[in-house]
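Worked example 3 (structure in, sequence out).
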């Protein structure tokens, strides 16, 4: 079982709710690069793709 990384979870939730990295970044008042980096880290730590289309560059 994997430990949940609670510090990165808001990034995932914002993107999932908003529908895009850029919209999620606006919600969090962060850059889309920061949001993308955190989503990539979560996906790598769990070994799964969390957001459909993220590997193709979800805008």
């Amino acid at each position: 079982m994997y430990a949940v990384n609670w510090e990165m979870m808001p990034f995932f939730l914002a993107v999932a709710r908003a529908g895009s990295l850029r919209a999620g970044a606006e919600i969090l008042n962060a850059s889309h690069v920061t949001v993308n980096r955190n989503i990539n880290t979560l996906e790598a730590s769990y070994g799964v793709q969390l957001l459909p289309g993220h590997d193709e560059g979800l805008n």
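Notes: The first helix runs from residue 9 to 18. The helical segments are 9-18, 21-28, 32-46.
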